[in-house]
Amino acid sequence: xxxxxxxxxxxxxxxxxxxxxxxxxxxxxxxxxxxxxxxxxxxxxxxxxxxxxxxxxxxxxxxxxxxxxxxxxxxxxxxxxxxxxxxxxxxxxxxxxxxxxxxxxxxxxxxxxxxxxxxxxxxxxxxxxxxxxxxxxxxxxxxxxxxxxxxxxxxxxxxxxxxxxxxxxxxxxxxxxxxxxxxxxxxxxxxxxxxxxxxxxxxxxxxxxxxxxxxxxxxxxxxxxxxxxxxxxxxxxxxxxxxxxxxxxxxxxxxxxxxxxxxxxxxxxxxxxxxxxxxxxxxxxxxxxxxxxxxxxxxxxxxxxxxxxxxxxxxxxxxxxxxxxxxxxxxxxxxxxxxxxxxxxxxxxxxxxxxxxxxxxxxxxxxxxxxxxxxxxxxxxxxxxxxxxxxx
Length: 392
Fold this sequence. Notes:
Blueprint: E1 8-11, H1 17-27, E2 31-36, E3 51-53, E4 59-63, H2 64-67, E5 73-77, H3 83-93, E6 98-101, H4 107-110, H5 115-121, E7 126-131, H6 146-152, H7 177-200, E8 205-209, H8 210-217, H9 219-226, E9 245-250, E10 253-258, H10 262-271, H11 276-279, H12 286-291, H13 293-304, H14 309-318, E11 323-325, H15 329-333, H16 336-340, E12 344-349, E13 352-358, H17 382-390
Helix pairs in contact: 1-7, 7-8
């Protein structure tokens, strides 16, 4: 029995943020019913190549993108735009604890599937809406996408190299991070609403906006502005509040050094054979190092050029200075640490005996995550789910 095996989730969301939340709930044991458009399904089914290959090596219709965020679900095809489909969904809601949707503001009301209508049918329903800008505010009716919101939410303004450096300019994060974070916040909101339902017996609406999430996730960068009046700028791989905490160039390439306190900095200077830097008044504390970043970093960089990456990583590990390589995705998923943590998992798939996916990072001692269903083929469970719940 999973931690959430008592829950049934009706997932009307598509693409990434909503499906990410429902996949987490499925991994934790919830029964998740994914509603898809007849014929085409979730948009990400066609977002390839690459596509999964079957046991004979032939390409299937299952895109790698779809597979990454739809594990553990049952696929049911229903036409939400038809009166019959809307009636079927309203009946399904009577049997569900949670509904997740990411349609534009107003769309669900036109289908008769808005929170107020469905809460009247099932007062215990937790109804999670995910949009670009939320259910209220002057931008609420605008569509929102991860790339757009990374820009509007300030994230791109602090990502990338300064304009003064080669290749400088704002950059998006290399994955759809705003969508992923919104999926995580949605999961937290859903679980909070379910916990409150234990006391009140009532469900409620959870309103998530990609822009709100991006603003919240700016963390110390937002606080630097709100508390300190500093409008953050792009620093490449450097940190606005900690020095040295960035990438350095060794004799044969790049590595990361993440010095988090003054004692680590002292050990770092000893490892570099530059102990005098830790005694220099300009660098003796982190606050001073931040103020004198432009004087310190060239001195450290010059020392780092004296050895290869592998040498530095061994020396810094012995010195207990946080440092690490800049792995490729391939190197990450071949690393002993990732393998030992079961972050590569195999699930049985009808078209592929061993579909490999990224594991769930949540490790529970009594009710561990289980991978009981592969990502579904389109409409795979339409008949069985509707027959079981609606006796059709």
